[in-house]
Amino acid sequence: MDGAENGEHSRKMVFVTVGTTCFDALVKAVDSQQVREELSRKGYTDLLIQMGRGSYMPSKVSGEDEPLTVDYFTFSPSIADYLKSASLIISHAGSGSIFETLCLGKPLIVVVNEELMDNHQSELAEELAERKHLFYARPQTLHQTIQDMSPESLIPYSPGNPMPVVRLMNKFLGFPTD
């Protein structure tokens, strides 16, 4: 029999990454009952959280009667395989995580760490959200973003010409633009 009959093909994983930082507000947000219920309502079955240097420990949830299986880890030598196997990625606003996900063509919600001072990453995330390449949220609005999102509405990011992004990043960082 094929995998669809035993449920293999119906698994939809959400991968959350905070990179190498501490972003407990994001980990707490995805660990909330509100967000987990919203992800389950949207058809996601698994939530895997890469929690970085954070101290908040999310709850592991598993079992046949659980609509959403939750697991977590701190670091991995590479998150590429997690990104590739995910149906949805929820990420901090690090440019590396953003562009790696966009180049894979995966739906992405970028959550901004409002505790960072002079946060140019949020400006980049806002600009890419305005261009409809990703969804943008804050920890306290994540459940609403998930509820309202329509991944089909996203415009695929075309990494062909890096100059518009380079100019955008230079502008945000205060470097001269040509």
From TrEMBL:
A matching Pfam family: Glyco_tran_28_C
Name recorded for this polypeptide = (wild Malaysian banana) hypothetical protein
**In what residue span(s) does the Glycosyl transferase family 28 C-terminal domain sit?**
13-155
Residues in a coiled coil are: none
Which GO annotations describe the biological process of this protein? dolichol-linked oligosaccharide biosynthetic process
Instruction: Tell me one GO molecular function of this protein.
Output: hexosyltransferase activity
Name the InterPro entries for this protein: Glyco_trans_28_C, UDP-GlcNAc_transferase
One GO CC annotation, please?
A: UDP-N-acetylglucosamine transferase complex
Which organism is this entry from?
Musa acuminata subsp. malaccensis
Could you name the domain of life of the organism this protein comes from? Answer: Eukaryota
Stored Gene3D superfamilies: Glycogen Phosphorylase B
